[in-house]
Write a structure and sequence with these properties.
The structure holds 3 protein chains of 3 kinds. Chain A is mainly alpha-helical. Chain A has a single domain (36-149, 157-442), classed as Formate dehydrogenase/DMSO reductase domain (Formate dehydrogenase/DMSO reductase fold, Up-down Bundle), CATH 1.20.1630.10. Chain A has helices spanning 21-33, 38-64, 79-90, 93-103, 113-134, 160-193, 197-207, 214-247, 259-285, 294-325, 328-339, 343-355, 363-366, 369-396, 411-434, 440-445. In chain A, helix 6 (160-193) packs across helix 7. The longest helix of chain A has 34 residues, at 160-193. Chain A is globular, with a radius of gyration of 23 Å. Chain B is of the alpha+beta class. Chain B folds into 2 domains: 4-50 and 125-175, no CATH class; 54-119, no CATH class. In chain B, helix 3 (54-80) packs antiparallel against helix 4. Chain B is elongated and about 80 Å long. By secondary structure, chain C is mostly helical. Chain C has 17 helices and no strands. In chain C, helix 2 (38-68) crosses helix 3. Chain C is globular, with a radius of gyration of 21 Å. Classes of the chains: A mainly alpha, B alpha+beta, C mainly alpha. Chains in contact: A-B, A-C, B-C. Chains A and B meet through helix 1, helix 6, helix 8 and helix 16 of A and helix 1, strand 2, helix 2, helix 3 and helix 4 of B.
């Protein structure tokens, strides 16, 4: 064997360290069964504080009205919509990992999918907060749904904003179902391992009496397969519909036909970055390096690079087309992005999203955990700025110079956004404590020993 | 007086369980099942199980969602609240695509998940098989086979001997 | 064990010979029949050309992406796309008539038109004859480079003596896949803009490149499926390429049918909704008269029929159904190209004898180049490290 070249051709094992079926259950269940460490309590306290901040900001908003935000004319969409798109975007990695990688038989997904799915569900919850509160009179939010009412009024189905209600609502519901179906066998594991009566009852209740029967597995696997097959177009549709909020308009910088796939690529990009950010910490703290191996992390880096390049492709195409269009408004919209009043935001976006992932071309950096983590943070920041650039820059400089303006957030905007992280992390920490963060049965299923013909002659 | 649910035997891994299932199937038993911590590929064939009908349920769900989505929007836009928005015709097929699509997916998902629960008879918070003394390991590392007393071929003694002959250990009769 | 399979019989001897002869005659006939109306003739040529090159470009993508993803299942069905993409130099030669026809095809080459058109003047730094030629030279250079590299390495791998060497070669191909895909994405996008979008130089769409790409990959997959079925009927690889592989190919076809629809719908939908004149101008001629009918044909044939038929696992594994869908989609891709090109110039469906002649002409020549390459080497990459994985494939 030639050792001068580091060959990656050979398939590396998905689980390292001589694991058995039992030891996998042990590793994954340990954080759930052990008393939570001190840092967990501290982190939860911090998160709940932030959550309280979010709640008070929402309360203040409802009491005072939308005027407490930095919105003005012409910038009628500010941080609320930016945060909404940011969180929905993050919520795309989970279902992508569960569904698309499942369909492509990427077995390495099993170590990270549960984690990412949980993140998806929580991120979508955070996202749902923003359109809910930005309507202003939130007690009227039921207008968004086709509910018969005494005024005989119905929603407008030709509005992009209404499609969002259905898209994000469906996405949340299906992600939750998908997550729960995946959890079912693992809840049974926790039930069977439970030492206290309360745990046994609660986990038993949610495990629905799962008994690992092969006759049940048969239908279960079919259901999982179908869910994956329908979740794949769903993932594409959700962020495409979010992009329609912008792209169906006539505003230069918003109306461009590449928006749907571009938003989807960006969503996957940001979602993967967020998964990586959290996963790197969790695998360190919970000692899961044998389940979440370097191979998994490297694959994640490659995904980030690939989707980052797609986002870069879209930036480039937009710019080229703006010039090629010959339309002065289009051209202005894009020159203004790069060199106008919000140029700083634009360049933060480009350097975070396009430049920083370039490190991942090199194996050396794909194996450097610290750098990986830093880049994943950069991508998160960059993707937030991308939505900021799209939303605010375009609005602040529309057709008539007389109606131009500049938007700055108020402390309420900033605190609401920071508070939304409180909501996210509160849910996430509770997840880490009460549910298995790795799909136990799925990881066992991809171990070589799980093949009934393992060790038999081929 | 308790009645018997059936006979349970433990096996040491996916391979031996797989071959045991094949032998039980070939011996002519029908009411039997295997229990594993994770799905074993090919087990449905080893046990002689027919293809799942679940996809048909999903398809029905999808068609239902599609119809409801389109009908809802059409009725609201043409009759329920007929207003011209942004110069679009009352019936704007392209504009109805997103919601129709989402509802198709939503209904498919509901039918798939709850259909799967229905076919598998879940939730089943009580099941006789849990009475087996070693069954708790099924969700971690245990591989079991059960032959139910409802099976025509079931005979307490013979079935026990048969399970032993195909390599089962810790054979135990489970109460209803 | 020698797993080398070589193409023999009718497919190796008579077919390449006859396809070349018929191809050249048809091509000549096309030019002869068409020369009375240059514009119409060159449009027919461009249509046939962009149809066939979409297969080749799709094959190129599939080969690169298999190395990029380090995929194992598709090894046994990789030789056909590898050999097909290697016909790209022939396409560089076949591009020459388009250069001659530029004046008939592209409004922006007319100095008089540009002089009276502010927009065209603004676009002149990009849309001008020398730069167009240079760009196309770059595209073909990139494609020939990629195709030659992957083709040669894979063929060389057939002859290596040890597993180590084979792995070295695969490692090299994997390593270069990322940069290849990047170059591929850029060149294909701009080639699409140049060849088809600039037929209507006032119109633009950022997603246009992706649109053509989606159709191209789908078409290439159909071509690959059909080719292996034909090879199988002639007792080549019929025991190696099994239903499992067709199942996977079918899934990919299905995926790309949906992807194409997604892109096509997005582009149409955003244009329709915003209703801005400069965007709508492209769809207006396509939404009236016979082109409207063509649009519905595409909705049915390019989306709905494959969507419902190929939903079933059994359909993908049934070679009759599978080949039916593949043929349908090849036809649809051709109609789609017609739909992209012709309504810019004609209000009626424009399908003439010249179109047929060029289809047969370019098709025949390409078929010859493809088969000649195919018969020289093994029909399967015999030393690929993932070969066993691919042979053992089981789809569930």
């Amino acid at each position: 064997m030639n050792t001068t070249v580091d060959l990656e051709v050979k398939r590396r094992p998905l689980v390292t360290g001589n694991q058995t079926f039992e030891s996998i259950s042990d590793i994954v269940c340990k954080p759930v069964e052990a008393t939570p460490p001190k840092w967990w309590h501290i982190a939860l306290l911090g998160s709940i504080t932030l959550l309280a901040l979010l709640m008070s900001m929402i309360g203040y908003l409802v009491w005072e009205g939308i005027g407490v935000w930095g919105l003005n004319n012409p910038v009628g969409w500010g941080w609320a919509i930016v945060n909404f798109v940011f969180w929905v975007g993050i919520g795309h990695a989970g279902t992508l990992i569960s569904a698309i990688l499942f369909l492509f038989r990427q077995k390495w997904r099993t170590s990270i999918n549960r984690f990412a799915e949980a993140m998806t569900v929580f991120a979508v919850i955070c996202a749902l907060v923003f359109p809910g509160i930005h309507v202003g009179r939130i007690w009227m939010a039921y207008f968004m749904f086709p509910i018969p009412n005494s005024m005989a009024m119905w929603p407008n189905f030709r509005s992009a904003l209404l499609w969002d209600v259905f898209a994000v609502g469906t996405y949340f519901t299906v992600s939750l179902l998908f997550w729960y179906v995946g959890l079912l066998p693992d809840l049974a594991t926790l039930r069977d391992r439970a030492k206290t009566k309360t745990k046994k009852i609660v986990y038993g209740l949610f495990a629905l009496g799962w008994r690992g029967s092969s006759r049940q597995w048969h239908h279960y696997e079919k259901a999982y397969m179908i869910l994956a097959a329908i979740a794949t177009p769903l993932v594409l549709s959700v962020h495409s519909i979010v992009s329609f909020d912008f792209a169906t308009s006539q505003l230069p910088g918003w109306h461009t036909t590449i928006f749907p796939p571009y938003f989807v690529a960006g969503a996957v990009f940001s979602g993967f970055a967020m998964v990586l950010t959290l996963l790197l910490i969790a695998r360190q703290i919970f000692n899961m390096k044998e389940l979440v191996t370097m191979r998994h992390l490297e694959n994640m880096c490659k995904f980030i690079l690939a989707t980052g390049m797609m986002v870069g492709y879209a930036y480039a195409m937009e710019f080229f087309m703006a010039w090629y269009s010959g339309n002065p408004y289009e051209q202005f919209a894009f020159t203004n992005r790069a060199f106008g009043n919000y140029a700083w935001a634009y360049w933060i976006m480009v350097s975070c999203n396009v430049l920083s992932p370039q490190f991942f071309w090199f194996k050396r950096f794909r194996n450097n955990i610290k750098l990986m983590w830093v880049i994943s943070i950069f991508v998160n920041i960059g993707m937030w700025f991308e939505r900021f650039v799209i939303t605010v820059t375009s609005l602040s400089r529309d057709f008539l110079p007389s109606s131009w303006g500049y938007y700055s957030p108020t402390f309420v905007d900033v605190c609401t956004f920071i508070g939304s992280f409180g909501l996210f992390f509160t849910l996430f920490l509770l997840f880490l404590k009460f549910l298995p963060m790795v799909a136990i049965s799925e990881v066992k299923g991809v171990m070589p020993e799980a093949n009934p013909h393992h060790k038999e002659a081929h | 007086m308790s009645t018997s649910y059936g006979m349970i035997a433990e096996f040491d891994g996916p391979g031996s369980l797989f071959h045991a299932a094949e032998k039980i199937r070939d011996a002519g038993y029908v009411s039997f099942d295997t229990y594993t911590p994770f799905p074993i590929h090919g087990m449905d064939r080893a046990m002689g199980q027919k293809a799942s009908h679940l996809p048909w349920l999903s398809l029905i769900g999808g068609l239902l969602g599609f119809t409801i989505g389109l009908a809802l929007q059409t009725w609201i836009s043409l009759d329920g609240y007929a207003l011209i928005f942004s110069g679009k015709p009352l019936f704007s097929a392209p504009a109805f695509v997103p919601v129709t699509f989402e509802l198709t997916i939503l209904f498919t998902a509901f039918f798939t998940v709850f259909g799967m629960f229905g076919i598998n008879k879940l939730p089943a918070w009580y099941h006789s098989i849990f009475n087996a003394s070693r069954f708790g390991s099924v969700s971690s590392h245990g591989f079991f086979v059960s032959i139910e007393s409802a099976d025509a071929k079931y005979d307490s003694k013979e079935t026990r001997a048969f399970l032993k002959s195909i390599g089962g250990s810790h054979i135990e009769e489970v109460e209803e | 064990m020698d797993k080398t399979h070589r193409l023999t019989g009718f497919l190796a001897d008579k077919l390449p010979k006859w396809s070349l002869i018929i191809g050249i005659i048809a091509l000549a006939l096309g030019f002869l029949l068409g020369h009375s109306n240059d514009q119409s003739m060159y449009l027919s040529y461009l249509t046939a050309y962009t149809f066939f090159i979409s297969i080749v470009l799709g094959c190129m993508f599939l080969v690169i992406v298999q190395h990029l993803a380090r995929g194992g299942w598709g090894v046994v069905v990789r030789r056909v796309p590898e050999q097909m993409m290697a016909t790209i130099p022939t396409f560089a030669l076949l591009f020459i008539p388009i250069l001659f026809g530029m004046h008939s095809l592209y409004e922006w080459t007319h100095a008089s038109a540009v002089a009276h058109d502010h927009l065209l003047q603004m676009k002149a730094p990009y849309l001008n004859v020398p730069f167009f030629v240079i760009r196309n030279i770059i595209y073909f250079a990139v494609w020939i480079g990629i195709a030659r590299y992957y083709n040669r390495k894979s063929l060389a791998q057939d002859y290596v003596a040890s597993d180590d060497e084979a792995e070295q070669i695969t490692a090299g191909m994997q390593k270069r896949s990322a940069i290849s895909i990047l170059l591929y994405a850029l060149t294909v996008s701009f080639a699409t803009f140049d060849w088809m979008m600039s037929l209507k130089p006032h119109w633009f769409s950022t997603v246009f490149g992706v649109y053509y790409f989606a159709g191209a990959v789908m078409t290439a997959l159909c071509f690959i499926s059909l080719t292996y079925m034909i090879l199988g009927r002639h007792k080549h690889l019929d025991t190696v390429v099994t239903k499992e592989h067709y199942h996977d190919l079918g899934k990919l076809i299905y995926g790309f049918v949906i992807f194409w629809t997604y892109i096509a719908f997005s582009q149409f939908f955003l244009t329709w909704y915003a209703n801005i004149p400069e965007f709508v101008q492209w769809y207006l001629p396509r939404s009236v008269g016979p082109w409207r009918t063509m649009a519905s044909v595409l909705v049915w044939g390019h989306f709905l029929i494959p969507l419902f038929v190929f939903m079933s696992r059994h359909a993908k594994r049934n070679l009759k159904v599978h080949s039916g869908i593949a043929i349908l989609l090849l036809v649809m891709q051709y109609l789609d190209i017609q739909f992209l090109i012709k309504p810019n110039f004609f209000t009626d469906i424009h399908f003439t004898l010249v179109d047929v002649a060029f289809l047969i002409g370019i098709g025949g020549i390409v078929l010859n180049r493809f088969l000649v390459r195919l018969k020289q080497e093994s029909l399967m990459p015999v030393n690929d490290p993932y070969l066993q994985e691919s042979l053992d494939l089981e789809v569930y």
